[in-house]
Amino acid sequence: MINAALHALSDPTRRAILARLALGEATVGDLAQPFAMSQPAISQHLKVLEGAGLILRRVEGTKRPCRLAPQGLADLEDWLAQLRRAFETNYARLDDLLTELDKETPK
After folding, report:
1. What is the DSSP string of 18-62?
2. Distance (Å, whole) CA 45 – CA 53
3. pTM score, two decimals?
């Protein structure tokens, strides 16, 4: 799911759609409004976001409201947290090494 989420987030239109959905549920028409593209094009973006688990869609009569998926970014957040911990560990080791080298350097 991480690869699908990263792919979905790689497109600025899809990121803008997610930003809009962060404000609340919206229909395809609502989401298409600020873009210079057709509703079918927006629907394609929504399919990618839905396939990545980032949004949920439901049927309400003739409307198809979209909203953010509650756990949509959870896997990605976990992966990023792992990377962050690895970077922090490496930086701490580098700090220790630089401190040790500084102590050894004659002044």
Report:
1. HHHHTT--B-HHHHHTTSSS-HHHHHHHHHHHHHTTSEEE--BTT
2. 13
3. 0.79
Dig out the tokens for 40 from the structure: 């079918």
Question: Which H/E stretch holds residue 63?
Answer: none
Question: What percent of the chain lies above the pLDDT cut of 90?
Answer: 72
Phi-psi region of 59 (alpha: psi -120 to 50; beta: other; left: phi over 0): beta
Query: Residues near 29 by Cβ (< 8 Å), separated by ≥ 6?
Result: 39
Average pLDDT for residues 26-44, to the nearest whole number? 92
Contact 75, 39 (CB under 8 A): no
C-beta neighbour count of 49 within 10 angstroms = 27
